[in-house]
Amino acid sequence: MSAGDATGTGWTYGPSAVGDFLTDELAPLVEGWFEEPVSSDDLTGLGLVRHIE
Predict the structure, then answer these.
(1) Which of 15, 5, 9, 1 shows the shortest CA–CA distance to 52?
(2) Does a structural domain hold residue 41?
(3) Residues 50, 10 contacting (CB under 8 angstroms)
(4) pLDDT reported for residue 19
């Protein structure tokens, strides 16, 4: 996802420290928990819901 000069997952609009916390502290707790791949249809639907083209 991109907006202005920022590119990322679109999960949060908080300061960069939030991203660091998610990556360093929370991501290890859920890595490997959900192994189903994300399809291109899922990504297209996400973009439509979030009004991103």
Answers:
(1) 1
(2) yes
(3) yes
(4) 79
Q: Domain total for the chain?
A: 1
Alpha helices in 1-53 (DSSP H): 16-21, 27-30, 40-49
- Residue 23 pLDDT: 87
Parent domain of 25:
12-49
Bridge partners (DSSP) listed for residue 3:
6
- Confidence check: pLDDT of 53 > 60: no
Tokens describing residue 38: 């994300």
Contact (CB, 8 A) for 35 and 41:
no
Distances (CA, A) of 23 to 35, 42, 47, 50, 52: 18, 23, 23, 23, 24
